[in-house]
Specification:
Radius of gyration: 28 Å
Distance between the termini: 56 Å
Largest sheet: 5 strands, antiparallel
Structural class: alpha+beta
Helix content: 25-40%
Oligomer: single chain
Number of helices: 10
Length: about 450
């Protein structure tokens, strides 16, 4: 009986100790949460003060920050105002591609009769592209004795609406087309002799001390005398040039069709979609973005049209955006585009909920105060901002995901328009604010 009493007393004592530990842990956790909450409130007040500073008073700024786990808006500064989005528009192109394209790109549409093939372009940008070097469609065409191609199924201009015409000789502004080849650029390496790809343009280069790298209306190219870098210069596309290049590449006779009867097309699968999407986001590749929207159009029609793809993805998946953005191109090169921070948060939320998280965070660029980190320059462990930037003259925007020290994922849209100070100052200011949130929330 005495032993049972002693054991009973011990159990009661241990129970009381355990109870005190639990109470202490709860109090400690509550205190820590309270301190963290107070710390974040102080940061929030400081951030709000930043937005009323003299530095930001001469520009248009929007900042929307959302805790997706709690569906809680932490900051909303001009979230419903329209801004020129620049390359953050590519987030919408990314979403459209995930929804309308399959795991691999539709490389071309074809109909076969004996050993002859009739082909229809889908806008696939990877044919012999300087980065992807995709020869799959070329190898496919080499199987046939003769090839007939229809090149009038692209419904649009060579440049998007509102693009700056003076960008024509720069690598970031190739023309849009139904069957682009070599990325619609000439790649020239200053070897001795010059290495020119495609070599069709080898005789079209001259030396020039200054001025544009190409004539405005002709495929005449110029190289600076002291140039030592590999250059990519957009060439002027045409149906005749496409036929000539295809003939040289395949070694097959190519017939150009003026019209085409309805056919039951087969689709040649191309390279994996996600590899192209990642390259578009990390390099902010305008050409890939525009052609991806044509690929999306090819899935719903034989006619390639940005508007068809845009209207389809809005009608099926984005009809509840409020206010509705003005979305005029796939790349964001146009100043006609108008998006709100709220629209950007909506697309980020859809991407987070509707796509594989590993794929999403692998595709999204890492970012710090210097801008996008290179593929090798950072890792998920060393970075906490996964975001797409968008910049042009007097504009710098950043939209994406913020990982906090406590492990939470926040969505943010930070948009800066019409400033006259250096973009580097804007980036540093954004980074300082996002880092404070990262450390305290």
């Amino acid at each position: 009986m005495l032993l049972k009493s002693i054991l009973g007393a011990s159990q009661v004592f241990l129970y009381q100790i355990l109870k005190l530990k639990i109470v202490f842990s709860i109090l400690l956790f509550t205190t820590l949460i309270g301190c963290a909450g107070l710390h974040f409130k102080a940061v929030k007040k400081q951030v709000l003060n930043d937005f009323t500073s003299e530095q930001l008073s001469h520009q248009h700024t929007g900042f929307l920050l959302v805790d997706i786990g709690k569906n809680d808006t932490l900051f909303n500064i001009n979230g419903a105002k329209y801004f020129i989005p620049a390359s953050t528009t590519k987030l919408f192109t990314y979403y459209a591609s995930l929804k309308l394209l399959g795991d691999s790109l539709p490389s071309l549409k074809y109909a076969q009769e004996n050993q002859n093939a009739t082909i229809l372009g889908t806008g696939d940008p990877t044919w012999l592209h300087p980065y992807f070097k995709n020869e799959l469609p070329i190898d496919f065409l080499k199987r046939f004795d003769s090839i007939y191609v229809y090149l009038d199924n692209y419904e649009g201009e060579k440049y998007g609406p509102g693009w700056a015409w003076e960008d024509y000789p720069y690598y970031f502004s190739p023309e849009i087309s139904a069957i682009p080849l070599y990325g619609n650029v000439v790649t020239v390496t200053p070897n001795t002799p010059l290495t020119v790809i495609p070599d069709h343009f080898a005789s079209a280069f001259q030396s020039k001390v200054e001025g544009p790298l190409r004539d405005w209306k002709a495929n005449q190219f110029y190289l600076p005398g002291q140039n030592k870098d590999t250059l990519q210069i957009p060439y002027i596309t045409s149906k005749e040039l496409t036929v000539k290049l295809l003939n040289g590449i395949t070694g097959k006779p190519i017939g150009l069709l003026d019209s085409i009867a309805p056919k039951k097309w087969k689709i040649l699968p191309g390279i994996p979609r996600d590899s192209v999407l990642k390259q578009m986001l990390w390099e902010s590749d305008n050409f890939l973005a525009e052609q991806l929207m044509l690929l999306c159009s090819s899935k719903i029609s034989d006619t390639l049209s940005f508007e068809r793809a845009r209207d389809s993805v809005i009608g099926k998946y984005l009809g509840n955006l409020d206010p509705m953005p003005r979305w005029v191109d796939g790349s964001g090169l146009s100043r006609y585009n108008l998006f709100t921070p709220a629209a950007m948060i909506s697309i980020l939320k859809k991407l987070y909920k509707e796509s594989d998280s590993l794929q999403l965070f692998t595709s999204m660029p890492l970012w710090d105060s210097n801008g996008t980190i290179s593929h090798e320059g950072g890792t998920p462990e060393s970075s906490f901002i996964y975001a797409k930037s968008g910049s042009m003259g007097n504009i710098y925007n950043l939209c994406g995901y913020l990982r906090t020290k406590s492990g939470k994922i926040l969505l943010f849209s930070f948009m800066n328009n019409h400033f006259r100070r250096p973009s580097s100052d804007v980036r540093k200011n954004m980074y300082a604010i996002l880092k404070r949130v990262h450390e305290t929330y």
